[in-house]
Write a structure and sequence with these properties.
It is built from four helices and seven strands. It is α+β, with helices and mostly antiparallel strands. The strands form two sheets. Strands 4-1-6-7 form a four-stranded antiparallel beta sheet.
């Protein structure tokens, strides 16, 4: 056999811990498809999109855990995309490039969003469902955001200053909306 099995193999799936995380938006975003390659829609008939993201903090126990977002072609999906753009600091430039009452799901716009969000950083707060089966992203914010509450919840990850510098280096200037 080309590949040999191992008695103990780790395949890399990590479940994010509850709390705030430093997150990198990845690559390969697009319409959600099933194993047969068919487009997936929700029970309301709305198209689903997958925006890949993972925790990117080498000091975190759950570093590289998947926190990808499923976004529906709906009013809430529009809100999620707008909030992602705002959290990574790209919303103002987006509005300048695409003024007026437009939908993020217009082909020209969604294609541009997919390119522009790659390798950008933000913070996301995750929470596990009561049954323990799923982890949901409850909040999104810029890397500058410093969350506090009455419980003095600990922020997962760095302050973000290091990652902001990396984002500018990796992603280049944010003027590429043309």
């Amino acid at each position: 056999m080309k590949v040999q099995g191992q008695e103990h193999a780790e395949w890399g799936f990590k479940k994010p811990l509850d709390g705030w995380h430093l997150v990198e938006i990845g690559e390969g975003h697009g319409m959600l498809k099933n194993k047969e390659g068919e487009l997936v829609k929700n029970d309301k008939g709305e198209q689903l999109w997958k925006f890949n993201a993972k925790i990117n903090d080498d000091t975190a126990e759950d570093n590289e855990a998947d926190v990808s977002q499923i976004v529906t072609e709906s009013a809430f999906g529009e809100r999620k995309i707008a909030d992602i753009l705002a959290a990574i600091g790209e919303f103002k430039k987006f509005e300048e490039k695409f003024p007026g009452d437009r939908s993020f799901f217009e082909e020209a716009i969604i294609n541009r969003v997919i390119i522009q969000i790659q390798h950008k950083f933000c913070k996301m707060r995750t929470e596990t469902t009561k049954d323990g089966k799923y982890t949901n992203v409850m909040e999104i914010a810029s890397v500058k955001y410093n969350p506090t509450d009455s419980k003095k919840e600990k922020v997962a990850g760095k302050t973000g200053k290091e990652k902001v510098a990396e984002t500018k280096t990796v992603a280049g200037a944010s003027d590429a909306w043309d």
